[in-house]
Design brief:
- With 245 residues, the protein is α/β, with parallel strands linked by helices.
- Helix 1 packs across helix 2.
- Helix 9 links the parallel strand 4 and strand 5 (203-207).
- The radius of gyration is 18 Å and the shape is globular.
- The longest helix has 24 residues, at 33-56.
- It contains ten helices and six strands.
Length: 245
C-alpha cells in the first residue's frame, strides 16, 4: 500500500457501531425484559419509518425529535405509558448506547493504519452524535480514531437520500463523480444504507452479525448489493485494507 493511497471508511453509527437494541436495558426497568425488547424493536422501526416519510414529503425534523416522537408512537401502539421523567431518562440513555462487541477490535485496527481516514456518518444531529460517540462507555475511549463526525443535519435529508452521501463526499474532500465516489467505503449494518450508498457509486461493506445473508431485493443486480459482506466489523475493516493494498 503506497503512502499516497488514502483509504476512507465511513462508519454508520446506529445499528453498526452502537446497538439500538441495547436501549431495551433501560426500558426493562419500566416494563420487564420481554416487553422492553419488543418495544425497543418497534421504536427503531418507527424511527426509521419517520425518516423515510419525511424524505418523501421533502420535510425535515431533527433526528433527536424523531427519536422521541417515535418513542411516543411505539408506546401508544404497545398500550404502554411512561411519565415525563421516565421519558427523559430513556432519551438520555439513548445518548449512551452500548457498542457491539466487535467494535473495539475493529477500531484498534483502524488506529494502526496511518493512511486510513475513519469518519462517523449518521442520520443524527451533530449534538446527538457527538454525545453518543463520547458518552458511550464502549465507544468513548476510541473517539479519537474518527477524523470527522458527519451528520445529515446540514443537508436536512436522511439516508438513503443521495444528497447525504454527496454531503459525506464533500466533507472528506471528494467530488461528486463516479471515480471519487467509488473511492469511499461505507460500513453499515443497515441494508437501506448499503443500497443507498451503492446507488451513488460508493463501495459498501455490510456487517451481517446475524449471519442471515443478504435479503434486500429493492435494487436488482450487483448495484443493489454490498461490495463485501462479513459477520464481524474487524473482518470488514481488514478486507477493505487488503483491497486497497
Amino acid at each position: 500500500m503506497t503512502s499516497e493511497q488514502q483509504i476512507i471508511i465511513a462508519f454508520d453509527l446506529y445499528g453498526t457501531l452502537l446497538s439500538t437494541e441495547s436501549i431495551a436495558q433501560e426500558l426493562a426497568k419500566h416494563f420487564g425484559k420481554e416487553k422492553a425488547q419488543a418495544l425497543a424493536g418497534l421504536w427503531r422501526t418507527l424511527q426509521l419509518e419517520y425518516t423515510w416519510r419525511l424524505n418523501s414529503m421533502n420535510q425535515y425534523e431533527p433526528f433527536s425529535n424523531i427519536t422521541e416522537n417515535s418513542l411516543h408512537h411505539a408506546l401508544k401502539q404497545s398500550c404502554l405509558e411512561l411519565d415525563e421523567d421516565s421519558i427523559k431518562s430513556v432519551m438520555d440513555a439513548y445518548d449512551s448506547l452500548s457498542a457491539f462487541p466487535d467494535v473495539e477490535r475493529a477500531l484498534d485496527l483502524v488506529s494502526k493504519i496511518p493512511n486510513l481516514t475513519a469518519v462517523v456518518f449518521s442520520n443524527g444531529t451533530d449534538k446527538m452524535v457527538g454525545s453518543s460517540v463520547k458518552s458511550s462507555q464502549d465507544l468513548g475511549p476510541h473517539a479519537a480514531v474518527f477524523k470527522h463526525i458527519v451528520t445529515v443535519e446540514e443537508v436536512k435529508k436522511f439516508k438513503p437520500s443521495p444528497e447525504v452521501y454527496y454531503h459525506l463526499a464533500e466533507k472528506v474532500g471528494k467530488v461528486k463523480n463516479k471515480e471519487e465516489m467509488g473511492q469511499m467505503w461505507l460500513i453499515s449494518g443497515n441494508p437501506f444504507d448499503v443500497v443507498g450508498c451503492r446507488a451513488v457509486g460508493m463501495q459498501s461493506a455490510w456487517v451481517d452479525r446475524a449471519g442471515s445473508g443478504w435479503t434486500d431485493q429493492l435494487v436488482q443486480d450487483k448495484i443493489g448489493q454490498p461490495t463485501i459482506t462479513g459477520v464481524d466489523l474487524g473482518e470488514l475493516v481488514q478486507a477493505i485494507i487488503d483491497r486497497s493494498s
